[in-house]
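Protein entry
_____________
===
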Amino acid sequence: MMNKILPVGAAVLALVAGGAWYMTQGAGAGSTALPGAASAQTADVDTSAVIDMIQGNADASVQIIEYASFTCPHCATFHDGAYKQIKADYIDTGKIGFTFREVYFDKYGMWASLIARCDGPDKFFGVTDLMMKGQSTWARAGSEAGIADELRKVGRLAGMESAQIDACLTDGEKLKTLVGWYQQNVTEHEIESTPSFIINGEKYSNMSYADFKVVLDEKLAE
């Protein structure tokens, strides 16, 4: 099974508002605020500043876009298995380009996305690896405060300072822009579950590495 995606629109705005409530009211001592997010309206948001996170050869004839959530167990399984083989055989060798696009099921995935993007494109995939590997720990920390603290630990493990992490978590404008970007992406590609993949414009569900290899080799041979 795969995680089913949330409907675009009001449900996502409710998650933004929920995340803002925790970061401004529910965290208690040592928490940070998330200004602007509670009233986020994404319909007319300018998303041109959002950076697509790309590995491998951006000019290759074959391009994969992965749609994934940091809180999706199936996405974590993919990154621990098939992705490693795809990276070794196709991404690192320059045969393909690979783009990771976030899907937001919940406020925790939003917080994780803000931290993953906090130190720029060069660090994004390293932080993503840490997020996926540690998902069973940070995503199950119990309380909202516990999850936020565990996510901060991931950021520090990636070499970020606490002040930098908190600045990223309090960037309400960036969160609003990312949610608008997410809405545009999943609408364009009709994404309904995660992980999902767009390979040269064609949508695929999660697959084993063997099945990925067949598809990639066929497209490389075209």
About this structure: Strands lie at 3-4, 53-56, 62-68, 96-102, 193-194, 196-199, 202-205. The mean pLDDT is 83.
